[in-house]
Design goal:
Number of domains: 1
Largest sheet: 3 strands, antiparallel
Radius of gyration: 15 Å
Shape: globular
Strand content: 15-25%
Number of strands: 5
Distance between the termini: 34 Å
CATH superfamily: Vaccinia Virus protein VP39
Strand order of the largest sheet: 2-4-3
CATH topology: Rossmann fold
Oligomer: single chain
């Protein structure tokens, strides 16, 4: 969406999960074709590099991401999460009433 304006934005991505194994995999930044199946081809071409049968996230994107292990059920741990403008949850809401 931002295209040429992206350089003027202060973009930081915070990626949190309870599982350290999931975080380790995410830090690698390597995705299968299947994992990116619903990602528009122009996005894949812009932000990923083909690497054998998978796709590697480009270093300039990886630098925007900080990873942290967190239990979202723990209010004290939640306070460590920086205030955000947008929050995306994947397979999270199902764990809460």
């Amino acid at each position: 969406m931002l295209r040429s304006e992206i350089g003027a934005w202060d973009i930081r991505i915070t990626a949190n999960d309870l599982s350290e194994a999931v975080l380790a995999q995410a830090r690698e930044g390597i995705y299968s074709e299947y994992a990116l199946r619903t990602t528009p081809k122009e996005i894949v071409a812009r932000y990923f590099t083909p690497d054998g049968g998978s796709f590697k996230l480009k270093p300039e994107v990886k630098r925007l991401v900080s990873f942290g292990q967190i239990n979202l059920s723990d209010r004290m741990q939640l306070k460590r999460v920086e205030r955000s403008h947008i929050v995306f949850c994947r397979n999270v809401i199902i764990y809460f009433d």
